[in-house]
Write a structure and sequence with these properties.
Elements: H1 2-20, H2 27-58, E1 70-79, E2 83-91, E3 94-99, E4 109-112, E5 116-124, E6 128-136, E7 139-144, H3 150-164
Antiparallel strand pairs: 1-2, 1-7, 2-3, 3-4, 5-6, 6-7
Helix pairs in contact: 1-2
Length: 165
C-alpha cells in the first residue's frame, strides 16, 4: 500500500512541477513515474536501507549486565530535543537506546522497566504505525521503529514492564 502511495505521490509532484514549468500533462509519463518510482521507493529503497542499517547496528553494542537477558532488539530513532538513529534493546531489566556512530549526539537512554508507567502507540501522518512513547514519571521518550515492529515492541515492553513491578 505504501508503495502505491509513494509512487503516486512522487508522480503527482513531478507532474505538478511539469505544469509549473509549462509542460503539458503526459498520462503515460505519469503512469511510468508512479510505477517505476513506486517500486523503487517502496521496495528497493527499504531493502537498501535495511542492509545499511544492519551493518551500522552490528557495530553499535549495548552491554548486558550479568543478571539480565536480551528480549528484543532493533533499529530505532529516538526523538527528544534532537533526533538520533541507533539501536534499541529490551532486556528483562531495562529498555536502552544507544545512538550509532553516524550521529553527532551520543546520548545513551536507559529506562528501567519498573519505572515505566505507560506505553502509548502513535502514528506518523495518521496511518503509518511506527511510533511508541514511553512514559516514566514526568518524562516521555519517543521512539520511531519499523512499521511492522511497533506493535511487537509495545506488547513486549508492556509485558516485561508489568513483570518488573
Amino acid at each position: 500500500m505504501q508503495t502505491i502511495i509513494m509512487g503516486f505521490t512522487y508522480a503527482g509532484v513531478m507532474a505538478l512541477f511539469g505544469l509549473i514549468w509549462g509542460e503539458k500533462f503526459n498520462t503515460w509519463q505519469f503512469i511510468f513515474n508512479a510505477t517505476f518510482f513506486g517500486i523503487f521507493m517502496g521496495i528497493l529503497f527499504p531493502v537498501i536501507t535495511k542492509i545499511v542499517t544492519d551493518r551500522v547496528l552490528k557495530k553499535t553494542i549495548i552491554e548486558l549486565e550479568e543478571d539480565e537477558l536480551l528480549v528484543y532488539e532493533g533499529a530505532s530513532t529516538f526523538k527528544s530535543n534532537f533526533s538520533a538513529g541507533g539501536k534499541l534493546v529490551l532486556t528483562t531489566k531495562r529498555l536502552a537506546f544507544k545512538p550509532h556512530n553516524l550521529n553527532s549526539k551520543k546520548t545513551f537512554v536507559e529506562i528501567p522497566l519498573n519505572k515505566i508507567t505507560e506505553v502509548e502507540k502513535q502514528n506518523t501522518y495518521g496511518f503509518i504505525h511506527n511510533i511508541f512513547i514511553i512514559q516514566k514519571a514526568n518524562e516521555k521518550f519517543k521512539f520511531f521503529v519499523a512499521e511492522n515492529e511497533r506493535d511487537v515492541w509495545v506488547s513486549k515492553i508492556t509485558e516485561y514492564s508489568t513483570k518488573a513491578l
